[in-house]
Amino acid sequence: MIAKNRSPLLSWTGIVPVLALVVLAVAWGRDLGVFPVVLVAIVLGATVLAAVHHAEVVAHRVGEPLGSLVLAVAVTIIEVALIVTLMISGGPDTATLARDTVFAAVMITANGIVGLSLLLGALRYDVTLFNSEGTGAALATVATLATLSMVLPTFTTSHPGPEFSPAQLTFAALASLALYAMFVFTQTVRHRDFFLPVTEDGVVEEEEHASPPSKKATVFSLVLLLIALIAVVGLAKVESPAIEAGVRAAGFPPSFVGVVIAMLVLLPETLAASRAALRERVQISLNLGYGSAMASIGLTIPAIALASVWLKGPLELGLGPTQMVLLGLTVLVSVLTVVPGRATRLQGGVHLVLMAAFLFLAINP
């Protein structure tokens, strides 16, 4: 984690977040050329990697499964900020931005992060083990949140189009918050052992073998994590015109902007989940994957619902037929993956193929 005998301030993970704030101050409000856009993108990527490091330090200090929530909530803050910022500054194409981003987040977490973690773990350890009780509860919560927030709006009749009426949106927001709060209580307090790594004989393992970082190092990483998150949000806003222009130039539909946002904000969790899988801690990878999907819906939808009071234009949350088929298939396959409590390369490959199908159909709807 943090190098010994050297101040964390002198490491790249300490320098990059501060450098990102400087770059943000210089680039904010300017029309950037090609070279500055590339430079900002490089700094943005490095800042995301730095955020991963500091989130892992904080997570190691607080322990599992609470540690998995740190990164999930952090990236959700980024996601909400990006969606609201783009919806304020965007045009009519942003009516579906919240739906596109949240749905992309669910597909990336439930298929991309989960599939990659299972595949990496199985390639190194042949068979991956995890607690089906905790993971199944997480999957059930994700499926319920996704259905309430993104499937029902397509079929309700109180408001024209795939939109909720104000009363329905309020109910969906409150229900999402309640479900997320109940899950967090279950994961961190009531049934904490359901979300800890398990061994072949079913014994629950506490994380982690290395000694946790000191209180001073944890506070330092927490401060730098907050700085990195602020910088990521700002730099992503600076990059957003280039992202939108790139999507148009590539001939992709406007909804693909939501996919790009989701891929950007979930990069830290993808890296953290992959590292956990390679350490034979697939349960932590699944905590991150499903926890991120849950936070993306359970926190983003209420935040967007609140922001819609001030945002102009419609807020379309209902999924289309193709998206609903992909969501339904993802839930079905995920149930079959989770129930046994163990998985091989095949399960990881199936989820990654679903991820590839989602990306392909996002480009060619």
From TrEMBL:
<feature type="domain" description="Sodium/calcium exchanger membrane region">
    <location>
        <begin position="34"/>
        <end position="188"/>
    </location>
</feature>
<keyword id="KW-0812">Transmembrane</keyword>
<feature type="transmembrane region" description="Helical">
    <location>
        <begin position="256"/>
        <end position="278"/>
    </location>
</feature>
<dbReference type="InterPro" id="IPR052946">
    <property type="entry name" value="Alkaline_pH_Ca-Antiporter"/>
</dbReference>
<feature type="transmembrane region" description="Helical">
    <location>
        <begin position="290"/>
        <end position="311"/>
    </location>
</feature>
<protein>
    <submittedName>
        <fullName>Calcium:proton antiporter</fullName>
    </submittedName>
</protein>
<feature type="transmembrane region" description="Helical">
    <location>
        <begin position="34"/>
        <end position="54"/>
    </location>
</feature>
<feature type="transmembrane region" description="Helical">
    <location>
        <begin position="317"/>
        <end position="339"/>
    </location>
</feature>
<feature type="domain" description="Sodium/calcium exchanger membrane region">
    <location>
        <begin position="221"/>
        <end position="363"/>
    </location>
</feature>
<feature type="transmembrane region" description="Helical">
    <location>
        <begin position="346"/>
        <end position="363"/>
    </location>
</feature>
<feature type="transmembrane region" description="Helical">
    <location>
        <begin position="217"/>
        <end position="236"/>
    </location>
</feature>
<keyword id="KW-0472">Membrane</keyword>
<feature type="transmembrane region" description="Helical">
    <location>
        <begin position="102"/>
        <end position="123"/>
    </location>
</feature>
<feature type="transmembrane region" description="Helical">
    <location>
        <begin position="9"/>
        <end position="28"/>
    </location>
</feature>
<keyword id="KW-1133">Transmembrane helix</keyword>
<feature type="transmembrane region" description="Helical">
    <location>
        <begin position="167"/>
        <end position="185"/>
    </location>
</feature>
<feature type="transmembrane region" description="Helical">
    <location>
        <begin position="66"/>
        <end position="90"/>
    </location>
</feature>
<dbReference type="InterPro" id="IPR004837">
    <property type="entry name" value="NaCa_Exmemb"/>
</dbReference>
<dbReference type="Pfam" id="PF01699">
    <property type="entry name" value="Na_Ca_ex"/>
</dbReference>
<feature type="transmembrane region" description="Helical">
    <location>
        <begin position="135"/>
        <end position="155"/>
    </location>
</feature>
